[in-house]
């Protein structure tokens, strides 16, 4: 089985998972019209603020990735970086089975600059890895903050493990990838800031749907867990909804409202990703200091 066939197969599996889960959530466990009813009385100003925060978080992600590029002497302008970033989001969301957004970014940069395919690929990969570790560590911290267990030893172990992890993870990654040693610490700080922006996004979505949980940190925990699990579905559709639905049942939230919030996150993601279509047709002007190269598709 060649690489292209494998990619089509993986995408097909993800799409199938999303379709099955969406059908199960919206037509078996809940009713889609009950979900839609929650949007009739929504405060769309708050939802709009959530969209702005999501865009801000994606724009800020470009700064984090730029640290890794500078380590390999690839000094792209911020404008070039953000255009490539949103084009990558578009590819990831709307081109199933095709080249992935990150792979496309690596291809373009390797084609125009002689920094080495391995170094560019590694930079993009490590940017994703540090973001993933940050999410996992915040989830562990939220286990403490949310009082999910009556056992103090588990709560305080979660607190200590997360705090140590925020320092240990960048340090250990620096041992394996010394060229990015200093970058890992800066990148971890950026990742924490990005997650704080996501907290604001979650808050505004819940406010927009008139959801006022007694324990906001549990909603945040559910949100982050669904974000990690979204990699096994198509753009997170289905996974977010089923995680929120079952978590709502577990923590005595309103299942329909919680699922409505999850679906809003999915819609925001796919809507913002569509911005990348601008650069699909315009092309991306890549600038590196005095270098100015027009990329054609």
Automatic annotation (TrEMBL):
GO terms for cellular component: plasma membrane. The chain crosses the membrane at residues 12-32, 44-63, 84-104, 124-144, 156-176, 188-206, 218-237, 257-281. It holds the Pfam family LPG_synthase_TM. Keywords: Cell membrane, Membrane, Transmembrane, Transmembrane helix. PANTHER family: BLL5419 PROTEIN. It comes from the Bacteria. It is a multi-pass membrane protein. It is found in: Cell membrane. The keyword Cell membrane applies. This is Flippase-like domain-containing protein.
